[in-house]
Amino acid sequence: MTSTATTPGVATAPKQIPWQDEWTLNHSQMDETHHEFIAEINHMLAVPDDEMLAAVDQFIDHTVAHFEQERVWMENTNFPPKGCHIGEHDRVLAIVQQVRQMVAGGDYAIGRRLAEELVPWFNQHAQTMDAALAYVLIEGPDAEGAPKSHDGCAC
Questions:
Q1: Number of helical (H) and strand (E) elements in the chain, helices listed first
Q2: Partners of 10 in beta bridges
Q3: pLDDT tens for residues 46-95?
Q4: What is the reported pTM?
Q5: What are the sequence ranges of the domains in the chain?
Q6: What is the CATH T-level fold of the domain 26-139, as seen in this structure?
Q7: pLDDT tens digits, residue range 9-26?
């Protein structure tokens, strides 16, 4: 395990991100996937340097499948702000791929920094874009309060 010592000879455990109740969207499959997403972030925060590239690759595999599932849901429900939502997923994946190249070049700290920076992004994304998608999946695209255009989309 990577030491994050602040006092010589005294190692502390790596920071772990606890699940936040506001990330629960009451759609069981989406919530399960989001729990896995946070677990992958925590894995990147905890691994030693020599395992960071594998952890980033594992995160990429999870995130590609995660975003693809959401894309299918958006397509199947004709989710109005799907272009914005998919665009945000694409931008995140592009950044993750850039970070992966840096980790492959030996910059392991950037992998941990990626994990840290994904948390505020996920916090906002889950409570806006994913919340709107979960609402449509649960209540239906014609339900009162369902997005009709770019509602719930920060683009």
A1: 5, 0
A2: 7
A3: 999 999 999 999 999 999 999 999 999 999 999 989 999 999 999 999 99
A4: 0.84
A5: 26-139
A6: Four Helix Bundle (Hemerythrin (Met), subunit A) (1.20.120)
A7: 433 446 899 999 999 999
